[in-house]
């Protein structure tokens, strides 16, 4: 009637939570009882672990076994607790020393033959274990490179339960069995699309640079084939590489989704996510009927979310983005829990000028149909878009101009502008102009002189600009001044910011 305890980790969204796995054998009718809000995959762990232990030569007595997952009120999801349960059962039968397994965390799925299989989300699991004071983790060999990205934790790679047993037996004898992860090929360098491939579109390219410099949201309106998608795809290449904290957060999201690039290295480039316009609310915002999974807005965290043919998306999906656009996170509510998912991204919307796509004098759409097309983009959503730019059809004269400026040159200016912003906001929680609350820009030392802000005040008095829209014009004006190496925006930057509110005469809000 042995008792043993060890550690495991479960996921809630993209956050890990340390779990204490307790195993107790007692006299009674043979049964396997699991407590602690385990989901269906977790409740099936005994069906996998018992045959695996039997194949290892460890036979559990026919008695009542209780597995308690603590804290009991925290929902446990997935098969990643298999390895901890199997290890605790081995310790309860003295196959390994119970004192040695207690402080160690175990993450992995157990196969019937005793193999230890990888599970998604190992990176945030190990981060949570390290934050809780765990200093050693055993993971599947295929997850070892990913787990090793976390500093301060010693990672041991295991392929089978037999290796787990030998590891603890060697440690009990005063030795140390070094478990080595398999070598993984380095990922091939990713090709980044270059801005020089975009023909013409000087106005749209300039707006793209402003969006990259200040972290602003962007709407591109133009006929098919004008280059809206090409411009959006080249925005990540203009953005700076991610810092260590952001890279870890982005990599954790990809880890949970099982989409880490080959090599399991940190994701250091801003991600680019482009969902299809038929995507559901759960696919874009996040959620799901079972375990809460990140949606496209979280996959685009610290990167770019591109929604091509934006008016074709479902209205509830578009309006569902209003919260993450303001707060930088998504809160998924369930009856038993609330899950927070990071979602601080740059939104790029692309739309045709009308349903037929022609626009101008060639449009054959009735006025009512044309108004209904853009009416799918609600006013509150469009009010959160900083830059609205018209993209004209490419003319023969544009082809004669040759290639435009390359991505590297634009990225250099963007980096300088962002450095100015970091210096300005270094004593605040923000680092980009797009993140600064409007109340900060309207008061105290960042308030513009009355003469410079007069165009914004007049638009506010006429009712053509909301207070949220005024705040966003101020943010864009500060970004324009950073690109121009000015100490603060002047009247010219304010007028330019106001001009960037309407996409070339196409009325959208």
Description:
The protein has 509 residues and is α/β, with parallel strands linked by helices. Helices cover 38% and strands 17% of the residues. Strands 11-14-17-10-18 form a 5-stranded parallel sheet. It has a 4-stranded mixed sheet with strand order 1-2-4-3. Strands 5-8-9 form a 3-stranded parallel sheet, with helices on both faces. Helix 2 (45-56) packs across helix 3 (82-92), helix 8 (202-214) runs parallel beside helix 19 (407-424) and helix 21 runs parallel beside helix 23 (491-499). The chain is elongated, with a radius of gyration of 28 Å. The chain starts with a strand and ends in a 10-residue tail after the last helix.
Short overview:
The chain has 23 helices and 18 strands.
Strand and helix map with partners:
Elements: E1 3-12, E2 15-26, E3 31-35, H1 40-43, H2 45-56, E4 64-70, H3 82-92, H4 98-101, E5 105-107, E6 109-110, E7 116-117, H5 122-131, E8 136-140, H6 144-147, E9 154-158, H7 161-172, H8 202-214, E10 218-221, H9 228-233, H10 235-238, H11 244-257, E11 272-273, H12 281-284, E12 286-287, E13 293-294, H13 296-299, E14 304-307, H14 315-319, H15 322-327, E15 329-333, E16 338-342, E17 346-351, H16 367-375, H17 379-382, E18 387-390, H18 396-400, H19 407-424, H20 438-441, H21 450-462, H22 467-483, H23 491-499
Parallel strand pairs: 3-4, 5-8, 8-9, 10-17, 10-18, 11-14, 14-17
Antiparallel strand pairs: 1-2, 2-4, 6-7, 12-13, 15-16
């Amino acid at each position: 009637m042995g008792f043993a305890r060890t550690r495991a980790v479960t996921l809630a969204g993209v956050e890990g939570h340390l779990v204490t796995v307790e195993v107790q054998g007692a006299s009674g009718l043979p049964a396997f009882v699991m407590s602690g809000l385990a989901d269906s995959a977790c409740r099936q762990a005994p069906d996998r672990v018992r045959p695996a232990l039997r194949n290892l030569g460890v036979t559990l007595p026919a008695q009542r076994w209780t597995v308690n997952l603590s804290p009991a009120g925290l929902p446990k999801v997935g098969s990643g607790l298999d390895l901890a349960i199997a290890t605790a059962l081995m310790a309860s039968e003295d196959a390994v020393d119970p004192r040695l397994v207690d402080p160690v965390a175990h993450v992995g799925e157990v196969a019937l033959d005793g193999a230890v299989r990888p599970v998604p989300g190992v990176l945030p699991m190990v981060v949570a274990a390290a934050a809780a004071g765990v200093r050693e983790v055993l993971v599947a060999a295929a997850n070892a490179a990913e787990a090793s990205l976390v500093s301060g934790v010693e990672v041991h790679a295991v392929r089978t339960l037999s290796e787990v047993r030998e590891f603890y037996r060697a440690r009990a004898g005063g030795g140390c069995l070094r478990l080595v992860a398999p070598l993984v090929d380095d990922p091939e360098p990713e090709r980044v699309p270059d801005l020089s491939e975009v023909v013409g579109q000087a106005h749209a390219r300039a707006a793209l640079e402003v969006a990259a410099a200040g972290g602003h949201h962007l709407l591109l309106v133009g006929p098919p084939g004008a280059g809206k998608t090409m411009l959006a795809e080249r925005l990540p290449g203009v953005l700076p590489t991610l810092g260590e904290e952001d890279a870890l957060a982005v990599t954790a999201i990809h880890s949970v989704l099982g989409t880490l690039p080959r090599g399991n290295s940190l994701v250091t480039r801003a991600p680019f996510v482009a969902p299809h316009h038929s995507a559901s609310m759960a696919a874009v915002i996040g959620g799901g009927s079972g375990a809460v999974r990140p949606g496209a807005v979280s996959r685009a965290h610290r990167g770019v979310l591109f929604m091509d043919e934006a008016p074709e998306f479902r209205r509830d999906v578009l309006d569902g983005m209003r919260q993450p656009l303001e707060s930088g996170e998504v809160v998924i509510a369930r009856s038993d829990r609330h899950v927070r998912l990071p979602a601080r991204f740059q939104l790029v919307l692309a739309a045709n000028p009308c349903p037929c796509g022609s626009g101008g004098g060639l449009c054959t759409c009735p006025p009512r149909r044309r108004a209904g097309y853009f009416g799918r983009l609600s006013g509150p959503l469009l009010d959160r878009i900083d830059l609205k730019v018209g993209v004209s059809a490419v003319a023969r004269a544009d082809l004669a101009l040759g290639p435009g400026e390359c991505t590297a040159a634009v990225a250099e200016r963007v980096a300088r502008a962002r450095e100015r912003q970091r210096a300005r906001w270094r004593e605040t929680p923000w680092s980009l102009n797009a993140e600064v609350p409007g109340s900060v820009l309207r008061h105290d030392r960042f308030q513009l002189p009355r003469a410079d802000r007069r165009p914004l005040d007049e638009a506010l008095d006429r009712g053509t600009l909301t207070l949220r829209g005024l705040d966003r014009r101020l943010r864009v004006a500060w970004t324009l001044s950073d690109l121009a190496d000015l100490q603060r925006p002047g009247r010219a930057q304010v007028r330019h910011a106001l001009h960037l509110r309407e996409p070339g005469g196409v009325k959208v809000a």
